[in-house]
Amino acid sequence: MERNIAQVALFAAMIAALGLVPQISLGFGVPITAQTLGVMLAGAVLGARRGAAAAGLLMLLVALGLPLLAGGRGGLGVFTSPTAGFALGWPVAAFVTGLFVERVRLRSAGLAAGLGAVLGGIVVLYIMGASGLAIVTGRSLPEAFRLVAVFIPGDLLKAGITGMLVQALARVRPGALAWHRGAATGGLRL
Fold first, then answer.
1. pTM, whole model, 2 decimals?
2. Where exactly are the transmembrane stretches of this chain (predicted)?
3. Which domain CATH number covers 139?
C-alpha cells in the first residue's frame, strides 16, 4: 500500500517537474509542454489505476491553487481556460495508456508502452483537449481539432520516448513494471 502511494506521488511530482521544461506557445492558448510525456509514462509504468491516480493527484493540487502546470499555472481558472480539456483529460489518458499495457500483451514492453501512449496520450487526450478548446473558445470541433493537430508530431515523439524508457526499465528492472511481470490473466497476447 505504501509503495503504491509513493509511486503515485512520485509520478505526480514528475509530471509537475516536466512543466519546468520551457514551453512553446503557438498563439491560441494551448502551449507545447513536456508534461504530457509524464502523463504517458505514468500510465505506461504504473498501469491504469495508479497512472490515473498520479495524474489526478496533480490535477487536484492544481485545482487547490498550486502553480504546477507549465508556465506556473494553477488554480480553478485552469479548468475554464482553452487547456481545460487537456488538463481534465490527463487522468483519462494515463488510465487508457495503462489499460492498454495491462491488457494487450506484446513481446516488447516498450512497444506496448509506445502504442498505449499513442492511444491514451494522443487519441484520447486530443479528443478531450479539442472538445474543451471548442467549448471554451466557441470554435467548431473540426476547427479545434485542426488547431491541436500541430501537436501530433511532438506527441508522437513523446510516445516513442515513453516506449524507449519503458523498454529500458523492463530490461534493467523487470519487476518495476507489475503489468509486465507475466501476469497472464486478462491480457491479449500478441
1. 0.90
2. 51-71, 83-101, 113-136
3. 1.10.1760.20
